[in-house]
Amino acid sequence: MLAELSIDDLVLIAAARLELAPGLNVITGETGAGKSLLAQAVGLLLGQRGGEELVRPGADRALVQALFVSGDEELAVARELPRGGRSRSRMDGLLSSAAAVEEALRRRLAFYGQLEHTRLLQLERQLDLLDGAAAAQIRPLKQAYEREYARARALTRELAELRGAGRDRERELDLLRYQIAEIEAAAVEPGEDERLAVERERARHAGRLLERTGGALQLLAGESEAAALDGARVAQRLVGEAALLDASVAPLAQRLDALVAELDDLAAALRDYIDTLDVDAAHRDALELRHDKLTELMRKYGGSADEVLAH
Fold this sequence. Notes:
Largest sheet: 6 strands, antiparallel
Structural class: alpha+beta
Number of strands: 6
Radius of gyration: 51 Å
Number of helices: 10
Order of helices and strands: EEHEEEEHHHHHHHHH
Shape: rod-shaped
Helix content: 55-70%
């Protein structure tokens, strides 16, 4: 039961102490005497909204305290409304949430106002009254229904998860199909990124490479009288003739034969290399486009052409 109610600085009440006796307690008075404020104070303990507008003018805070007694058990609760701050609730002197205080008082206090009958219009209240009126008969059915309802909700969630997983799988398959098609359309070859890097460097310096290797070929086997291969052939012929006259010159002739053969092979290799050089701008542009495409694929699917193919 509510044994004591204490109010400080609430609206018009500076201080009030109310001790209630067991049984029926009736509070009477004319309109404006403060009966509604007593009811409002109890409502604040039960968690009703309240702000600094309820603080008495000139006061720093409003405070409502109550003592509930049930046999040997006592519970002290309080609600403080500071001016310019958030309200605070306490149970037995310790800070507590308004919800915890409301839960503790729900078993000790039933609070009814003038419009309490309107609760009958609330669907959940109607169900509570119906269940309470036929508790013995309805409770087993209600418990069975609640179990089946919980099971149905769980199955519904599980079904939604399975459907979501199926949609995720389809999206993943669509993504994989797109990726495979993109890689196949690009016709990536193993090791292509390494070969392409070499070709791009060669194409970038094709002009300078042609100038230098072409110049070397001219010095080695050009049409000028100073060409190294022509000079070596003349020397080969002369030393060969000398070897016919003196056998000791034969080793020199053999070395000149080998030198001429090596110079001839070197000239042929230079010609073959020069034939591979392409100074055409269109060729360079094609290599750059291929490089851009391959770089895009490697950024998506791996750091090399081999990793792209293994994706």
